[in-house]
Write a structure and sequence with these properties.
The chain is built from two helices and no strands. With about 55 residues, the chain is mainly α.
């Protein structure tokens, strides 16, 4: 639970610090992070499904 709140606070803090005047750039960074997370999920999900290692 503390990790979730820390991550949210860090994300909001960095968003305000770096992208306060450039909301379009903040959206592009968020989109890039979402794509990276989906790619990592695809790799790990396929690996776990193939190896049945949980």
């Amino acid at each position: 639970m503390l990790g979730w709140e820390s991550g949210m606070a860090l994300g909001i803090g960095l968003g305000v610090a770096f992208f306060y005047e450039r909301p379009q750039q903040a959206l592009m960074v968020a989109f890039a992070l979402i794509v990276a997370a989906l790619l990592m999920y695809q790799f790990t999900h396929n690996w776990f499904a193939h190896n049945k290692n949980r």
